[in-house]
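help with this record:
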Amino acid sequence: MQALELALVVAQAGNVNSMSDAAVAGLMARAAVEGAGLNVRVNVASLADAAQARALLDELATLRSRAMPLADQVIALAEQRGRLS
């Protein structure tokens, strides 16, 4: 989340020449969250404790629900400010 928050600052107020960097940061952060999510989902299947597995999946869902819209916002703003679209 910190990487996305920093990328948003760059997308909002950074030099327009750095907008591609901000957009790439948003894309990479999105990929990191999705990749970590895949790891969580594959590993919870082997947990004996169903409550712990559910808690981890809930935490993942919360992270995704916060990260994905923020990544979309970073990318859209960087594209707009940098005239990338």
About this structure: Helices lie at 2-13, 19-44, 50-81. The mean pLDDT is 97. The chain is about 80% helix and 0% strand. Residues 10 and 22 are 6 Å apart (CA to CA).
